[in-house]
Amino acid sequence: MQGKFITFEGIDGAGKSTHIGFVTDYLTTRGKQVVSSREPGGTPLGEKLRDLLLHEKMHLETEALLMFASRREHIAQVIAPNLADGKWVLSDRFTDASFAYQSGGRGLARDKMEALEAWVHHDLQPDLTLLFDVPLEVARQRLDATRTLDKFEREQADFFARCRAEYLRRAGQDPGRIVVVDSTRGIDEIQAELADILSRLL
Ligand code: ADP
Ligand code: TYD
What is the pLDDT of residues 49-85, one digit of tens each? Predict the structure, then answer.
């Protein structure tokens, strides 16, 4: 039996990473085998591309192409084989992030992104995408409190406003797949909602 593919999305600081461990535990205790991964990255080559993507300045189309190059490798080596093996694959970001950051944030034409999506993953789509949504100021406060910022995290507020708007536009277009999770709430309250969402997928 084919496993399920769940992706975690949101602007930087929205809380995605915080909840991946919870989802892993929730599924594992219910007998699922879980593989947790991330983009850009998730494979040895993808992690090298991640290092370039997060730290080097580059043309926006180069950035989009490298995101999809990393994704192509991730699908071939991790996502597709594990799903075929009946495992559940969790990915910290996937193609919705490319729409949000490279199209929304940087302004790359959406039809180019759609062409890359069709080329690289055809009809493979996540079974569920959890979109952690917070106002920019909340995300910024959370980031400032915790870590050294990478190339994307140093962007200005209007960049993240465009990313967030693109995420919400995609959620509006595909409400059966993308669930918007109000991430301004406390972690316990969010995780109660996640348990409810996951119980419907099991
Ligand atoms: P992301 O992976 O989306 O960039 P993180 O999960 O790393 O975000 O969260 C960024 C910071 O915000 C972390 O310090 C985390 O502990 C904190 N955080 C996450 N979710 C919440 C929440 N619901 N309430 C308060 N703080 C949170
Ligand atoms: P992320 O793993 O969320 O960073 P962190 O470990 O610091 O939480 O993602 C790295 C960055 O890459 C993030 O700022 C968003 C960006 N990104 C894109 O711009 N396009 C993409 O397609 C993906 C997958 C990520």
Answer: 999 999 999 999 999 999 999 999 999 999 999 999 9
User: How far is the centre of ligand 2, averaged over its atoms, from the C-alpha of 123 (Å)?
Assistant: 23
CA distances from 195 to 13, 174, 191 (A): 21, 21, 6
**In terms of Cα–Cα distance, which of 108, 18, 36, 24 is closest to 68?**
108
State the pTM of this model.
Answer: 0.97
Closest atom of ligand 2 to 92 CA is: 2
| Pocket lined around ligand 2, Cβ cut-off 6 Å | 12, 17, 38-40, 54, 67, 92-93, 97-98, 101-102, 150, 152-153
